[in-house]
Structures are given as structure tokens and as C-alpha cells.
Write a structure and sequence with these properties.
7-stranded mixed β-sheet, Rossmann fold, 7 strands, alpha/beta, 252 residues
Length: 252
């Protein structure tokens, strides 16, 4: 397989899909908690992130994650997915609902979302910095935008390393390879779903969570008053308690 992933622990499988600000290392604080609670943690790098190379042909992120589950010998898994990875988690759970036992979406993106003013301004600023070749400033912009007030300096440095690495990998590859787009309906998701949003995140992600909670058949929305965009890194202990509580109730 070209998708880099790792496995820790034994028991029911939990697939962790990272934010597109980070890579699979963002789940470092969650893996020991999952293993200690009797779960098997599987975490993978999407294409162009972490140790997974850029694609050399049309690719399908959701199919990639299904292939990871197959390669890891998991017939069924709970899926925990953040931000841009949340869109992959939704697609995986909608296209192959029998394979997903529970779905936790953390400040998730969603297909077809019209960005609000702040998110649009961020996208434009990031694009301008990268076009100017200022990867340092683009990295700093991401760290400032996506981490909430509880993130310490070590966490900010960690996110900066992951984000900068992704920029370097993606900017080094000039080939334009399209993502395969498969029509799916999120209402086909059968797994119990927890939608988490952060009060210190851009407002788009609270709106997305509320909208998906209304569309998904078995969903609830939990806003976190302390969180930014990456609560699993900002306050891992609080996030882990929420995660394990959900998995136990969601039959993960």
C-alpha cells in the first residue's frame, strides 16, 4: 500500500483520520488512551501528508481509508475524523455504512460548504503567501488560526512542524492529479454520530456541525466552550474523556 498507517493495541478498531492542518501524528495524545481503554487504534496519513506520498494517479481518499481497514484486518471500525479528514470520514461512513460502527467528527469540513467571511479571508491569505513562496508565514498563519487558547507553545510548534511538512511535500510535486469524486448522501450514514465544534474556531465549523446534526439520522452536536479547531491537541485529557465516553455508548 502507498498509504502510511500504524496500529496500536488490541480490541475493537478505531480509525483516526487527521486534519489537513496536520498528519496522523496529531493523534499522539489519543493512542495511549485508546489502547489503555481496550481499543485498537489505526491511524493513517492521507495522500500528501506525513509519510504518504502525493498521488500519481486519480485518487479516492475514502477508498484509501477503506483499504487501510482491509489491510489492517478490520471488518468494522469506529471512525474519528477531524477537519478536512472529517469529510473523508463522512464519505467512508456513507458509502460503506456497514463498515462504520460509530462516527465522531471534530470541527469537520463538509462538501458543498460556502465559506463565511473569515474562512474565505484565511484561504485567500494562505494562497497569497504560498504563491509568494513564504512557507514560514503560511505555516504561522495556520498555527494562529487553527489552535485555540489552551494550546501551549509545544503544541503550537508540533502543529507547525506537521503543517510545514505537508506544504513542503505538496509544493514539491507539480503534477495535478484529480481526486475521484463519488456522489454520496450523508443521510446514508447509519452509525451513531457525535459532532464536536469549538467556540474559539471559525464560525463555519459550528454551522457545519449543526447542519450535519440535522441531516444525519443518529447524530448529536456537542459544542466545546474551551476549544479551537484542534481540541484533541489543545486539551487532550478533556478530549479523550469525551472520545472514550462516546465510543462506549456508540459501540465502537
Amino acid at each position: 500500500m502507498t498509504i502510511a498507517y500504524d496500529v496500536a493495541g488490541s480490541g475493537p478498531t478505531v480509525l483516526l483520520i487527521h486534519s489537513t492542518v496536520c498528519d496522523r501524528r496529531m493523534w499522539d495524545p489519543q493512542v495511549p488512551a485508546l489502547v489503555g481503554a481496550g481499543y485498537r487504534a489505526v491511524r493513517a496519513d492521507l495522500r500528501g501528508f506525513g509519510e504518504t506520498p502525493m498521488p500519481d494517479r486519480p485518487y479516492d481518499n475514502a477508498r484509501d481509508m477503506l483499504d487501510v481497514l482491509d489491510d489492517a484486518g478490520a471488518d468494522r471500525a469506529a471512525v474519528v475524523a477531524a477537519s478536512g479528514g472529517g469529510r473523508v470520514g463522512q464519505e467512508l461512513a456513507a458509502r460503506w455504512p456497514a463498515r462504520v460502527s460509530a462516527l465522531m467528527l471534530v470541527n469537520t469540513a463538509v462538501d458543498g460548504h460556502e465559506p463565511g467571511e473569515e474562512l474565505r479571508a484565511f484561504d485567500e491569505r494562505e494562497e497569497a503567501l504560498l504563491e509568494a513562496g513564504d512557507v514560514d508565514a503560511a505555516t504561522a498563519l495556520n498555527v494562529a488560526t487553527w489552535l485555540g487558547p489552551h494550546a501551549d507553545e509545544a503544541t503550537r510548534a508540533w502543529v507547525a512542524r506537521m503543517q510545514r511538512h505537508a506544504f513542503e511535500v505538496q509544493l514539491a510535486d507539480s503534477a495535478e492529479v484529480e481526486r475521484v469524486r463519488v456522489a454520496y448522501d450523508v443521510s446514508a450514514v447509519t452509525a451513531p454520530t457525535l459532532l464536536v465544534s469549538g467556540a474559539h474556531d471559525l464560525p463555519d465549523f459550528t454551522r457545519i456541525a449543526a447542519g450535519l446534526a440535522a441531516r444525519l439520522p443518529h447524530a448529536r452536536h456537542v459544542p466545546l466552550d474551551w476549544a479551537g479547531h484542534l481540541p484533541s491537541l489543545e486539551r487532550p485529557e478533556a478530549f479523550n474523556a469525551l472520545l472514550l465516553d462516546f465510543l462506549r455508548g456508540g459501540d465502537g
